[in-house]
Design brief:
It is a single chain. The chain is α+β, with helices and mostly antiparallel strands. It is 17% helix and 40% strand. A seven-stranded mixed sheet has the order 1-10-9-5-6-7-8. The mean pLDDT is 92.
């Protein structure tokens, strides 16, 4: 007999992660993240696409976006990992200090996980510090050895919007987005940040060929 609450749970087997930047050291020897204009890949992917690829041939494994493009406000602690996850209205999980009821810190002696608490989204005091929007993008790399997904995490609002918009367009035209031959690209995009225009590199879903080529693939 199946185990209730366990046997019906599934997760995509993950082979590894691809990054959108590297870590550097400041003049004060403090580590900080620095974005790149290419995917930062492990050796097995570099063997196929080169050391600094800007596009990857991918397949989306399933239609359910919650499984391959999960996107929430996420709050992380260096000591405790993920301590809060919400959708802007409700916290799916929140690790709190049992004594104070506040968000757990490194000094909290006893903590517990709570569900259903209010999520303030961008109004949260931790937003921009520990909390931000994060998409966990998971996909197959058919040219790379192994059966499982690779993951990219992005906190870029523009990347999240690009992926969501492309997904809606592809699904609207083809009836599905899973198992379609797609390109995941990292492209320069002009954005408005803090009242100034600047160029950043954002994620996009692209296709090769004409619209008719795409429709033929959708009918396979």
């Amino acid at each position: 007999m199946p185990i209730k609450g366990l046997s019906d749970r599934r997760r995509l087997p993950r082979l590894g992660k691809i990054h959108l930047g590297v870590k550097k050291l400041s003049a004060k020897n403090v580590e900080y993240p620095s974005a790149t204009d290419h995917f930062v890949c492990p050796p097995e992917i570099q063997e196929i696409y080169g050391p600094e690829p800007k596009e990857l041939r991918i397949l989306i494994p399933v239609e359910d976006e919650e499984r391959w493009a999960s996107q929430y406000y996420r709050c992380y602690s260096r000591m405790r990992g993920l301590i809060c996850k919400g959708d802007g209205e409700t916290c799916l999980i929140r690790m709190v200090d049992r004594e104070t009821g506040a968000l757990a810190t490194r000094d909290s002696k006893e903590v517990e996980l709570k569900e259903g608490l209010p999520c303030q989204g961008r109004e949260c005091p931790e937003y921009g510090h520990q909390c931000r929007e994060v998409m966990n993008l998971q996909f197959l790399l058919p040219d790379v050895e192994g059966l499982g997904v690779w993951q990219i995490d992005t906190g870029s609002i523009n990347s999240i919007m690009n992926i969501n918009s492309a997904t809606e367009l592809i699904r609207g035209i083809c009836g599905r987005v899973s198992r379609m031959p797609l390109l995941l690209t990292l492209e320069p995009q002009e954005v408005l940040a803090e009242g100034k225009r600047k160029t950043v590199h954002t994620l996009n879903l692209r296709v090769k060929g004409t619209l008719m080529d795409v429709l033929r693939q959708a009918n396979i």
